[in-house]
Write a structure and sequence with these properties.
single chain; 65 residues; 2 strands
Length: 65
């Protein structure tokens, strides 16, 4: 697809997306990095369940590098 060609043309060093929408295997390219939102969603559910605030947490504490 044209979008994949443009994104993988070398203009970008890295393209970062989340796994909230599935990406077909045929649309992967070397510069594509897919980050999981599992820890972020889990933390949000935990905080809502415990009636805690959704304060700022550095990415590293959520398991995102």
């Amino acid at each position: 697809p044209p979008a994949i060609e443009r994104l993988s043309s070398g203009l970008f060093q890295e393209v970062i997306i989340t796994n909230t929408i599935p990406v077909l295997e045929q649309n992967y390219f070397p510069q594509l990095t897919v980050l999981s939102v599992a820890n972020l969603l889990g933390e949000t559910i935990w905080r809502v369940h415990d009636d805690c605030s959704g304060g700022y947490e550095p990415y590293s504490s959520l398991g995102i590098d």
